[in-house]
Amino acid sequence: MAKRWYIVHAYTNFERKVADAIKERA
Question: Which residues form the domain of 16?
Answer without folding.
Answer: 1-26
